[in-house]
Design brief:
The complex is a heterodimer of chains A (259) and B (246). Chain A is mainly alpha-helical and 259 residues long. Helices cover 71% and strands 0% of the residues of chain A. Chain A has one domain. Chain A is built from 12 helices and no strands. The model of chain A has no long low-confidence stretch (mean pLDDT 91). Chain B has a domain of 68 residues. With 246 residues, chain B is of the alpha/beta class. In chain B, α4 crosses α5. The longest helix of chain B has 16 residues. The chains are: A mainly alpha (259), B alpha/beta (246).
Chain lengths: 259, 246
């Protein structure tokens, strides 16, 4: 099965690469500001949270804009990919009714597209670090394993959503709300110190806690990421990817028969 | 004899997912009798078996809803059969339909690449063939506009130009014979004939009897998902005519 997936990937790699490139352009091609939106999107969202938390509630962490941005970048990658994956088979049904395409390519493509946007967000991050006089140390390079784990996890979740989205049309409606509550339950705008120590362990059941906190550690606090949590989530992601690929291959040529 | 397609006892169902209505749910949960399943199925093909020899041109005829297009999609590996087996003895297969999966936000040019790559051309082949496809489509400068700005005639011209420049061993044609305005129609039907007359195997769906008579060596007749007959073009067409005038 894994071999199948790899074979298919190599067979369709030209299509995959072209599609990623074109999709990156797709969402901004008709706007006046074009690619600038890749930078503006996370920047504006950061400003919204900064206004709410830092100026209105006056509860923000030190260097709040950077603090929230570290979580926001990863979160945007995750949430945009989930939003797309849940309906990706339906939105590609035109193509899928004409030729065979291995279905796992769609979530993989979207994970990759949003990954590239995530990387672009670092341009803003560096400007902000300069502005707030935060100097990244050698620990910054430890961001690589975090990004890797993050990628695995996002792909794993989107694979499962790709499958479920075909059968449960309601999932798309539900997901919007789920995504919103997931963000508020993740330590994106607030620090874990805010939570009483008794309940803090509950937050560690949320994968985003591991990601957000690790990103902050390496970017702002010159500490190492939470390696143990990351490894646990790697294992879970790999299991989910394996299960997801299995299911998707089992239904591979039946999705489009469902009307 | 060398067969390129071997189909045995093929059956295929479409599944409809029903929306849950409260009334139905209540009746279902509280009735003691047999429970209805949440999905409804429609048998599009039932127990179809046939073989097609290499190099032949075969027409599929039948009324609307007989399962002709569904059969082509199974043969083109888009749908998995629910029962039975389908053996295709070549890797180079392509399905020509006008129901294309264009991405409307992308330009015609980008869609040529995406569709071409999907239809089995490599990036290199596409780079070589690109000029030919673009000039065949006669869309000129429109190619750099998003497809959503195209008229339906322009879309079908583009779709035809891409699909007809893929050169597979086994070609399926779903009622695509002539598209666009009068001039383009002439050109496209000539192109189709050129594709068919070469030594590749072609399976085509058409409602045009003259065309089938002219192009096909053999005909398969489907009705309501079942195979009624397979055989010599003229014989089967005669029977089919009697049937449709019933």
């Amino acid at each position: 099965m894994i071999k199948n997936a790899l074979n298919d990937f190599f067979k369709f790699k030209d299509y995959f690469a072209y599609n990623v490139r074109v999709n990156l352009r797709l969402k901004v091609s008709n706007t006046f500001l074009g690619y600038l939106w890749w930078l503006l999107d996370p920047l504006l969202q950061m400003l919204v949270y900064t206004i709410i938390v830092d100026f209105i509630f006056r509860r923000g962490e030190a260097n709040f804009p950077v603090f929230v941005f570290c979580g926001l970048l990863s979160w945007k990658w995750f949430s945009s990919t989930m939003n797309y994956s849940v309906s990706c088979i339906k939105s590609n049904s035109g193509v899928l009714n004409q030729v065979y395409v291995p279905k796992f390519l769609f979530p993989l493509q979207e994970t990759t597209v949003n990954f590239v946007k995530f990387l672009f967000g670092f341009i803003i991050l560096f400007v902000m670090l300069f502005f707030f006089k935060i100097v990244p140390t050698i620990h910054f390079f430890e961001i690589i394993p975090i990004v890797f784990s993050n990628y695995l996890f996002i792909f794993a979740v989107s694979l499962i959503l790709t499958h479920l989205g075909v059968f449960i049309a309601d999932l798309k409606n539900l997901l919007g709300h789920l995504i919103r509550i997931w963000w508020y339950l993740s330590p994106g705008m607030y620090s874990l110190n805010f939570i009483s120590e008794k309940y803090r362990w509950v937050f560690w059941l949320n994968p985003n806690t591991a990601f957000f906190e690790s990103y902050r550690n390496v970017i702002m606090y010159s500490k190492s990421p939470h390696y143990i949590s990351l490894i646990i989530w790697d294992v879970i992601s790999l299991i989910l990817i394996y299960v997801g690929l299995r299911i998707i291959y089992q239904f591979d040529r039946s999705y489009s028969k469902i009307i | 004899m060398e067969y390129i397609i071997e189909v045995e006892n093929l059956s295929l169902n479409y599944r409809f997912i029903k929306s849950l209505s409260f009334k139905e749910w209540a009746i279902n949960s509280f009735s003691l009798g047999k429970k209805q399943s949440k999905t409804r199925t429609f048998k599009a093909l039932q127990d179809v078996s046939f073989k097609i020899e290499k190099g032949k041109t075969v027409g599929i005829i039948g009324e609307n809803g007989a399962g002709k297009s569904t059969l082509l999609k199974v043969l083109a590996n888009v749908y998995a059969p629910d029962e039975g087996t389908v053996k295709i003895n070549t890797d180079s297969v392509s399905l020509l339909t006008l129901a294309t999966g264009f991405k409307s936000e992308l330009t015609g040019l980008e869609n040529i690449y995406i569709n071409g790559l999907l239809l089995g051309l490599s990036k290199k082949e596409l780079d070589e063939k690109f000029e030919e496809i673009a000039s065949f489509s006669e869309l000129g400068e429109f190619l750099s506009n998003p497809v959503r700005t195209y008229s339906s005639g322009m879309k079908s011209k583009l779709a035809f130009s891409i699909a007809s420049h893929v050169n597979p061993d086994l070609l399926f044609i779903d009622e695509v014979f002539s598209v666009g305005d009068a001039r383009f129609r002439k050109k496209s039907s000539a192109k189709i004939k050129e594709l068919i007359k070469s030594d590749r195997t072609v399976v085509m769906v058409s409602h045009n009897e003259d065309q089938i008579k002219e192009l096909c060596n053999e005909v398969i007749w489907l009705d309501k998902g079942k195979l009624i007959a397979q055989g010599d073009t003229l014989d089967i067409l005669k029977e089919y005519k009697v049937f449709s005038n019933r």
